[in-house]
Amino acid sequence: MTIDTLRTIFFSPTGTTKKIINTIANGINLPVKESIDLTQSQPEINHLEDNVLTLIGVPVYAGRVPLQAIERLQQLKAENTPTVIVIVYGNRAYEDALIELRNELTELGFTPICGGAFISEHSWDTDNNPIATGRPDKEDLQKAQEFGESIAIKINKSKRLKPSAQLIVPGNQKYRERKIFPKIKPIVDESLCNTCGQCEAVCPVSAIQIGSKVKMDENKCILCSACIKQCPQKAIQFKDPWLKNVMSWLSTNFNEKKEPEFFF
Ligand SMILES: Cc1cc2nc3c(=O)[nH]c(=O)nc-3n(C[C@H](O)[C@H](O)[C@H](O)COP(=O)(O)O)c2cc1C
């Protein structure tokens, strides 16, 4: 099988996973045949051609792959498609996310050939509780670029991309239990909000409705912060005391810089 094009697939509510995937893609330097953004909706293309190198990235939510990302990936069908698997986490830990991504994709017909774990600004990073603010930084992006370049070398060298053994990545086969977060929604400061609708447009789970006011549905909200980071008026924030405590815990305990890791 000759691999001469690339496909990217990602779920990325606040855009850091997408940034890392695009930088790795740049390093791989193959023509991009298609880019499937799973953030807003289910994919339209579902049966994937197998001779396209596929680069898949998701964020880590509570040490797992977000359920919405899994559900949208499950709409795709592949056939031994050589695949690079990437998870992006907010400098705490990624626990079972990479192994879960590997296993899920293998079930769907992808063949993971290498993987990476990258660090980004935490979705809950704020001025008062900084958590890996500004990441991926220049060094992270340089490493993402170089990771892409090493994948390109691997592809050029090996005629047979199907590995003889399964890609080994950290994590437990029995994943940690999926965390059920309390029902929380971001709070809109109506004195700042001009109902521009940008929050509604970026919400990955249609939890926001714009009328004369912004309506947020805590039954749908996945706490991803897409609306908070998108709002040009800075009118949206989390005010829930439980989540504020978590943010402060993350900021205090996970401020030592973690570095990207690669698995071949
Ligand atoms: C609900 C939720 C749970 C998260 N859980 C973790 C976690 O377990 N470990 C971690 O380091 N970061 C965690 N994060 C941070 C995200 O993994 C990180 O910010 C990610 O890069 C966001 O990707 P995106 O910019 O593509 O949306 C969590 C974020 C959210 C919203």
Task: Give a topology summary.
Layout: E1 6-10, H1 16-28, E2 32-37, E3 53-59, H2 67-73, E4 81-89, H3 97-107, E5 110-119, H4 138-157, E6 187-188, H5 198-202, E7 208-210, E8 214-216, H6 226-230, E9 236-237, H7 241-253, E10 261-263
Parallel strand pairs: 1-2, 1-3, 3-4, 4-5
Antiparallel strand pairs: 5-10, 6-9, 7-8
Helix pairs in contact: 1-4
Bound molecules: flavin mononucleotide.
Can you summarize the main beta sheet?
6 strands, mixed
Q: Structural class of the secondary structure composition? A: alpha/beta
CATH superfamily of the largest domain: Flavodoxin domain
CATH architectural grouping of the largest domain: 3-Layer(aba) Sandwich
Q: Overall pLDDT, averaged?
A: 95
Q: How much helical structure, as a percent, in the residues?
A: 25-40%
Please state the CA-atom Rg, rounded to the nearest Å. 19 Å
Instruction: Measure the end-to-end span.
Output: 20 Å
Q: Indicate the low-confidence ranges by residue numbers.
A: none
How many helices? Answer: 7
Number of strands: 10
Q: What overall form do the CA principal axes indicate?
A: globular
CATH class of the largest domain: Alpha Beta
CATH fold descriptor of the largest domain: Rossmann fold
Percent of residues in β-strands: 15-25%
Strand order of the largest sheet: 2-1-3-4-5-10
Question: Please, how many domains?
Answer: 2
- Tell me the series of helices and strands, N- to C-terminal: EHEEHEHEHEHEEHEHE
Bound molecules: flavin mononucleotide
Oligomer: single chain
